[in-house]
Automatic annotation (TrEMBL):
Transmembrane segments: none annotated. It comes from Thiopseudomonas denitrificans. One of its GO terms (biological process) is nitrate assimilation. One of its GO terms (molecular function) is metallochaperone activity. Keywords: Nitrate assimilation. This is Respiratory nitrate reductase chaperone NarJ. The keyword Plastid does not apply.
């Protein structure tokens, strides 16, 4: 699904390629009928927000949002497994899923980096992509709620992804707000230093073993070159079906 690829680009660390492809990305968002008009407009507004700045300013703002601790980390398993041993195995399992599908990633990439996971889903058929999003809908809602709390336009990505997963974004994010209200957030420099001082993650080392330490999301920002079925799916290609939903 092309729209998932577009959202992957929007959520990734801003690079010149994104700025240069601004018109094409705007057109792709506008032509997507799998999300509501409101969601399309919110994504276009985010694109304008990113591409309307100087590149260094966009990168600095991105880092200040997503690279200040684990609160808004774009590494999925940090939210799911934290520092437990289960995180290392989850990484290995996800890598195996990528390899089985013929989806190659660079050795430096962490497989649970959300823009990378979205790029993988964008390469799959529609049902697999939607199911993959539904599998992480609670995480998408949590991040969406935290971004809404920060009044960040990046929340649009998570609204759209939840809609593509076949669930009601407002309902899911509304439920997540209860957890967000209880979040202890310490983004002082001392807390950040302590949070990221662990050894970086390395997977599939020379001895074939996986290490399950933690790594800062900053190591995963990169330029792009290029199972139940959800029951609330709305296909906006059907105008009569879409009417009244939004």
């Amino acid at each position: 699904m092309e729209i998932i690829k577009v959202i992957s680009l929007l959520l990734d660390y801003p690079e010149r390629q994104l700025m240069d492809a601004r018109v094409e990305l705007d057109d792709a968002i506008g032509q997507c009928l799998f999300i509501s008009p409101q969601q399309r407009q919110a994504l276009r507004d985010l694109l304008q927000h990113i591409a309307g700045q100087e590149l260094l300013d966009a990168q600095s703002l991105y880092l200040s949002l997503f690279n200040r601790g684990r609160h808004l980390s774009l590494l999925m398993f940090e939210h799911v497994h934290g520092e437990s041993r289960d995180r290392g195995q989850a990484m290995v399992d996800l890598l195996a899923e990528y390899e089985q599908a013929g989806f190659a990633i660079a050795a430096k990439e962490l497989p649970d980096y959300i823009p990378l996971y979205l790029e993988y889903l964008a390469s799959r058929d529609q049902l697999t992509a939607r199911t993959g999003l539904a599998d992480i809908q609670h995480l998408l809602a949590l991040l969406g709620a935290r971004l809404e709390e920060s009044e960040s336009p990046y929340a649009a990505c998570f609204h759209a992804l939840l809609q593509l997963a076949g669930v009601d974004p407002a309902e899911q994010i509304g439920q997540a707000r209860e957890k967000v209200a209880e979040d202890p957030v310490d983004d002082s420099l001392e807390a950040l230093d302590a949070e990221w001082e662990e050894e970086a993650v390395t997977f599939m080392q020379g001895d074939g073993q996986a290490s399950c330490g933690l790594s800062s999301p900053a190591g995963n920002f990169r330029a792009r070159e290029e199972v139940a079925v959800p029951v609330h799916w709305v296909d906006f290609t059907d105008a009569s079906n879409a009417a009244g939903k939004f």
